[in-house]
Amino acid sequence: MKICFNTVFIDGAYGGGMQFAHALKTYIENQGGHVVNNLNDDDIDLILHINPFPFLMKSSSFSFYDAYAYKMKKPDTVIVQRINECDERKGTRYMNDLLVRVAKYSDHIIFISDWLEDLFVRHYEVMKKKTVGVLLNGADAHIFNQKNRTQRGGNAKLKLITHHWGAQHNKGHEVYKKIDDLLEQKDFADKFEFTYVGNYPKNLIYRNVRILEPLSGLDLADELKKHDIYISASLNEPAGMHHVEGALCGLPLLYINSGALPQYCNGYGIEFDESNVEEKMLQMHQEYDMWKEKMSGYNNTAERMAKQYYNLFEILVKNRNIDEVPREKKCLSMYFRLFSLMYSVYWLIKKRLYVR
To answer: pLDDT of the chain along its 356 residues, tens only?
Structure first.
């Protein structure tokens, strides 16, 4: 089975989508499959939309129109869209429209959380017809695990940590700044310390938070293991990978009641909202040992996730409908390639207008 990802493979610190691409590529190749990231071959069985917008994402290798042009020439190719984004996440006003547009030129849709599926299926008819289900994110358990984790001393402070690649304010900075202010108080500072890894809004000044540059892989895992609790206050998170990595390293979770976080974190920590974060942190301080014992049961691993995708791909390829796009329409392939170029220009202009 030959599968094409529309993503450039980037090593090092990057977003969760890139980690997903690397993990799935490795699993498919270990199963004897073949992964490419361009449309040059004439024997592609399935195209997976990971980053279908080259006009918005430097990690994209081709657009969804390019993929559909390929299908015009080879109608038995299955096109699968993985949706891991939404306007609600970053406060944009164009992403949902783009994702719906991709859906119209895809055969099947996979969401990465129930919250995200509900967000789209409630509002867009095309999503109801093509959705095949929800597959949860997973992180690499060979890297993110509890081996060699620093153990907390009996009366030591609880060390909180979070990490984000994106620098948007709604990554949780309303809460993180509140914790920064709480750490001004001696009785609170005697119980907690807080580390932030990654990018953040440059207009924010953290006085009591330890700030580290973005980390990835083993460097990130080593830093996580030096801490006791993982906190995420990211708003409208479609799923995220950050809290998964923290949990696999054995850190009990403090998570905000927003987006997909409750689905991913429930049973492995304490939920909070912006009004009660101090109360819930103190609750975690009291209940820490109990939550720490539960973390060995957390199983959102990359291998588990990739196996689910691979098994689904096998089913979709086996049951594909080669008559879905008539062969006599091959001449439209050139039209979609040209339209892809024009559409890229259109959205670059539109994005500039939205940013203003």
So the answer is: 999 999 988 776 566 778 899 999 999 999 999 999 999 999 999 999 998 887 777 788 899 989 998 998 899 999 999 999 999 988 888 899 989 999 999 999 999 999 999 999 988 888 888 887 899 999 999 999 999 998 877 778 999 999 998 888 999 999 999 999 999 999 999 999 999 999 999 899 999 999 999 999 999 999 999 999 999 999 999 998 999 999 999 999 999 999 999 999 999 999 999 999 999 999 999 999 999 999 999 999 999 999 999 999 999 999 987 655 555 455 555 555 555 566 666 656 655 655 44
Q: Is 208 helix (H, G, I), strand (E, B) or coil?
A: coil
Give the length of the chain. Answer: 356
CA distances from 192 to 153, 160, 187, 282, 341 (A): 13, 7, 9, 9, 52
The topology (CATH level 3) of 158-297 is Rossmann fold (3.40.50)
Largest CA distance in the chain: 75
First vs last Cα of the chain: how many Å apart?
45
- Lookup: tokens for 15: 């977003």
CA 102 to chain centre: 18
Sequence-ordered strand ranges (E) for the chain? 2-5, 34-36, 46-49, 78-83, 108-111, 131-134, 158-164, 192-198, 210-212, 229-232, 253-256, 269-272
Q: Which of 335, 313, 306 is nearest to 77 (CA)?
A: 313
* CATH no., domain 2-138+302-355: 3.40.50.2000
Residue 190, burial from CB neighbour count under 10 angstroms (0-12, 13-18, 19+): exposed
Cβ atoms 69, 52 nearer than 8 A: no
| Residue 272, CA distances (Å) to 2, 53, 247, 255, 352 in order | 44, 35, 17, 6, 36
pTM of the model: 0.88
DSSP state of 211: E
Amino acid at 141: A
The boundaries of every CATH 3.40.50.2000 domain in the chain are: 2-138+302-355, 158-297
Q: Hey, what are 298's tokens?
A: 């957390």
